[in-house]
Amino acid sequence: MNNELKSFKDLKVWQKAADLATLVYKTTEKFPRSELYGITNQMRRAAVSISSNLAEGFKRIYPREKSQFYNIAYSSISELESQVEISKKLGFLSENDYQKLLLAVTEVSKMTDGLIKSLNSKSYILNSSRGFSLLELLIYVAVLAIVTVIVSGFFLAINKGRGQVDARTEVNQNIRFALSAIERDLSAASSVTVPATTGATSSVLTLISGGNTVTYATTTLNRLQRTVNSLSEVIVSERVKIDSLSFVRLENTSNALGKTFVSVETGLGVSYDSESPDQQYSAARKTTMSLR
How is residue 9 annotated by DSSP? Predict the structure, then answer.
């Protein structure tokens, strides 16, 4: 398969997946702004995941590795399809946009399924075998022997380091995203009802913004949840969990202006949700945000 294709961009299914991601971004621009950190973000992440994993799988050498990334892409397609259906039920999608997305998702799904099945075909195995030159084969055998006999421990250390880097990146990205969401809501809020008094500490933040009641709290699965009135959404990825969440109400009264300024000190602790010792990482941030 890779003998004829020089880049993942030559894959028809990747091209269709990239078109699908573009369509999702353009369509979700019409969604309510209240969904920017909700289903809008979830649909965009799922759409980008499809093309990203197809590209990653294309670069892998072994069929088993390729299949792993192609199957992740296939799972993201199912995730996106579910989100399209929910958006339609919520009234965020017009019938025309719904049909366009459904058609594009179905097409990419069928093509990805065919790509996965082709990895197990006899023709793929034979073509892959012919793809190695004698020099490439000798290099491959030499590298394999070195890895197995001499530097296996070194490569294990590299893999461990990569796992820690991935965990650190995921944790820090989610912390920044969550604190940014809280800061946006606080900057637009007219009042904070929980915590209610100066110096009070709470694991829940409740504020009033534009006539809506917005609440931040952790779920039973240790995820950060944002609720607007009765509509809830988890605003962190499934790869991380919340270790600690605290809100402290601070007040500063200006006698000259005859006004009390309210701010909230937010403390957030997040860790990577994995049992692997190579992916253990946690971080905590504390910041103060003011109502404007």
Answer: G
Domain boundary residue among 131, 147, 178?
131
Residue pLDDT, tens place only, 36-50: 889 999 999 998 999
Give the C-alpha separation, 289 to 75, whole Å: 38
How many domains, the chain?
2
CATH of the domain at 26: 1.20.1440.60
Is the domain of 67 the same as that of 174?
Answer: no
Cα dihedral 268, 158, 53, 71 sign: negative
Residue 111's nearest CA partner among 154, 83, 73, 81 is 73
Distance CA(104)–CA(51), nearest Å, equals 13
**Residue linked to tokens 């991601």:** 21
Question: Do residues 122 and 172 both lie within one domain?
Answer: no
Shared domain for 179 and 227, answered yes or no, is: yes
280 backbone dihedrals φ, ψ, rounded to 5°: -90, 115
Tell me the C-alpha to C-alpha distance, in Å, between residue 57 and each of 7, 130, 280: 11, 20, 26
Out of 37-51, 135-149, 239-253, 278-292, pick the least confident.
135-149
- Give the domain extent around 98: 8-131
On whether the pTM is more than 0.85, the answer is no
Q: Are 195 and 249 in contact (CB under 8 A)?
A: yes
In a domain, 49, yes or no: yes
Q: Look at residues 90, 112, 131 and tell me which one is the last residue of a structural domain.
A: 131
**Residue 71 to residue 53: CA distance in whole angstroms:** 9
Are residues 206 and 264 part of one domain? yes
Q: Which of 87, 137, 81, 76 is nearest to 104 (CA)?
A: 81
Q: Where are the beta strands (DSSP E) in the chain?
A: 191-194, 201-202, 205-209, 212-218, 224-228, 231-234, 240-254, 259-272, 282-290
